[in-house]
Amino acid sequence: MGRAYPAGRPVSVQRGALAGRQFAVGAEPFDPAIRRDLDGWPPGLRLQPFLEDEALVVGAPALLRARPVTAPQALVAHVLQAALDGLGLALAPASTVLQDLASGRLQAPLPALRLPLERYYIGQAPDAGPAAQAFLAWLEDGVGA
């Protein structure tokens, strides 16, 4: 998204655990919740599609200059060497690396190679207040559904 939510507007966001596919609200009340896919949401939340995402292969520019990647087959050598050296390329959700790509900190050597990921959804408590509504409008304005 690349823009900060306006300060002074209190909203709590609960992030669901992805690994165990369990959604825990905990002891604190929450307004919106954002997580991937439709499985494991508690009953009673209004769900709406939020963000489609893809996985990209990314790496440091210096690594890609030293060992260019021009085809998907070249990834095998990178992955094997990275496993041996503890370094290398990453397969990451595009939404998490956009700023690093824009700044040049990371590069995508095969930008057309994208793997679809499960979509993010927003769950909203039926009694969410005006601050939550404003926050969701801000998210939708910045990302689009």
Could you please describe the fold and organization of this structure?
The structure is a single chain. By secondary structure, the chain is of the alpha+beta class. It is built from four helices and seven strands. It has helices spanning 61-66, 74-85, 94-103, 130-143; strands at 14-15, 32-36, 46-51, 54-58, 90-93, 114-116, 120-124. A four-stranded mixed β-sheet has the order 1-2-7-3, covered by helices on one side. A three-stranded antiparallel β-sheet has the order 5-4-6, covered by helices on one side. The two termini are 13 Å apart.
Please describe the structure with a list of short key phrases separated by commas or semicolons:
about 140 residues; alpha+beta; 4 helices; 7 strands
Q: How are strands sequenced across the largest beta sheet?
A: 1-2-7-3
Write down the overall mean pLDDT: 77
End-to-end gap: 13 Å
Measured as a percent range, the helix fraction is 25-40%
Structural category is: alpha+beta
Sum up the overall morphology in one term. Answer: elongated
Radius of gyration: 19 Å
Share in β-strands: 15-25%
Order of helices and strands: EEEEHHEHEEH
Low-confidence segments, given as residue ranges, are 15-23
Major sheet: 4 strands, mixed
Helical segment tally?
Answer: 4
**Tally of extended strands?**
7
